[in-house]
Design brief:
Elements lengths: L2 H12 L17 H10 L17 H14 L6 E3 L6 H10 L4 E5 H4 L9 H10 L3 E4 L12 H10 L5 E3 L7 H10 L3 E4 L6 H4 L9 H6 L4 E2 L11 H9 L5 H15 L4 H8 L6
Parallel strand pairs: 1-2, 2-3, 3-4, 4-5, 5-6
Helix pairs in contact: 3-4, 4-6
Length: about 280
């Protein structure tokens, strides 16, 4: 995120605001270049910059920042966002034309219904472009007026070919969002914070749904929420490993699915981020 935005996010987490519902210490409270070095040190080959507005007249500016950040950071996917406002279709179209490869929206923080009429044209463009939208729409860690599976089900009835990546696997409404994936091939999931000790203490993944983790193995993407996590990055990977779903499942979730969905050449990503040889 832009530094001034990230600092405000950290302040919110430090205050244990109502959307966090509990203390949330930031593990990787470092400057941008340190964070990038840390990610690459973990072996991360591609990542997003998941910005999102919480009020009108903010999204277009965030999109300008993410476009610039992606241009100077080869291993970052060009990310964009939007908010229900009169000019949303205009800046979303501009972002698509500029090469945005994923959008992020946060129903809980933005406090809007995903089916807002101001977003009708936006959803239509994204459906036609086939660009994924990572959407925080589950009711965890604190429910909002427009969170939960029902607004997303209504949206998908109108735009059945949307590619929605359900953040946090839809916690805590895991089963209902998995049901939507049964009906819509474009519904994907990200594992951000899922299965960690921190999340399992409040929104545990139901044991009865473990089989569907394997069934949807080609539609689940590893997510981390780095740097804004209250535990180590390695713990998020360990949390997936201890599900005991096998190396093949882990490989799909941590690499293959994202490489396929975003057409990422990870070998090229490695080369692009290596420091130049001294002359």
């Amino acid at each position: 995120m832009p530094e001034q935005v990230l600092r405000k996010v950290w302040e919110y987490f430090d205050s244990a605001g109502p959307l966090t519902a509990r203390p949330w210490p930031i593990t990787y409270r470092d400057d941008e270049q340190v964070r990038l070095k840390t990610l690459r040190g973990f072996g991360v080959r591609a990542f997003t910059s998941l910005v999102y507005p919480h009020k009108p007249d903010m999204a277009a500016w965030l999109n300008e920042w993410t476009a610039d950040f992606a241009a100077r950071t080869p291993d970052c996917l060009h990310t964009a966002t939007f908010y229900p406002e009169q000019h949303a279709a205009s800046y979303v179209e501009a972002a698509l034309e500029a090469g945005a490869r994923i959008f992020k929206v946060h129903v809980q923080v933005g406090h809007f219904h995903p089916g807002d009429p101001l977003l009708t044209e936006v959803w239509g463009m994204l459906q036609e472009a086939g660009v994924p939208v990572l959407i925080h729409c589950g009711s965890g860690p604190a429910a909002g007026e427009f969170t939960g599976p029902e607004p997303i089900a209504a949206l998908l009835r109108r735009f059945p070919r949307l590619r929605l990546i359900i953040a946090h696997m839809g916690a805590p409404e895991y089963s209902e969002f998995l049901d939507l994936a049964q009906d819509y091939d474009g519904v994907l999931f990200d594992t951000t914070m899922n299965f960690t000790d921190f999340f399992e203490a409040q929104d545990p993944f139901p044991a009865a749904e473990r089989g569907r983790l394997r069934y949807f193995s080609d539609r689940i993407l590893f997510g981390s929420d780095f740097p804004n996590i209250p535990y180590s990055y390695s713990h998020a990977l360990y949390a997936l490993e201890r599900l005991d779903l096998g190396d093949g499942w882990l490989r799909q979730v941590c690499h293959d699915n994202a490489a396929r969905i975003f057409d990422i050449d990870t070998a090229a990503q490695i080369a692009d981020t290596r420091p130049s040889s001294p002359s």
